[in-house]
């Protein structure tokens, strides 16, 4: 079955309880369910993975090069994850970067993403809803190509 990859980086496995004033109270499991529902109308399956380590995220991208597309929240690796950036540069399917928080409204060190310029687009500041919006956008990108 054709699949979409949902990849979440460091510290995103604790969503729901992690700094809820910034990231909200929705858990990663709930986000996964929503994204899976969004793409299921097309008959696509969701493969969702979360890792804290950059190397493991790179391994997953290389394993899922056959995905229709991907939704990626690199977490803090957006700031200086050069290895992840290189893996994304070599990742052929279309992918969308998601940030729950509006990183531009936060500390200066979060204002630069080394990964975002490689993405098809970025959704940020919309909380958990951002993943659903990204799934809808990715569906349109994949079906238009
Ligand atoms: C984040 C923003 C990053 O700056 C931060 O390090 C995260 C979460 C977000 O989704 O808003 O871990 O990617």
UniProtKB/TrEMBL annotation:
Keyword Oxidoreductase: no
Keyword hit for Amino-acid biosynthesis: yes
Active site: 23 (proton acceptor), 99 (proton donor)
Pathway it works in: Metabolic intermediate biosynthesis; chorismate biosynthesis; chorismate from D-erythrose 4-phosphate and phosphoenolpyruvate: step 3/7
Catalytic activities: 3-dehydroquinate = 3-dehydroshikimate + H2O
Annotated keywords: Amino-acid biosynthesis, Aromatic amino acid biosynthesis, Lyase
GO MF assignments: 3-dehydroquinate dehydratase activity
Cited Gene3D superfamilies: Dehydroquinase, class II (3.40.50.9100)
Catalytic class of the enzyme: lyase
Pfam family for this entry, one: DHquinase_II
Sites annotated Transition state stabilizer: 18
Database matches in InterPro entries: DHquinase_II, DHquinase_II_CS, DHquinase_II_sf
Binding site for substrate: 73, 86, 100-101, 110
EC number, as in UniProt: 4.2.1.10
HAMAP family on file: AroQ
Family that this chain belongs to: Belongs to the type-II 3-dehydroquinase family.
Subunit structure: Homododecamer.
Biological role: Catalyzes a trans-dehydration via an enolate intermediate.
Protein name: 3-dehydroquinate dehydratase
Organism of derivation: Streptomyces cathayae
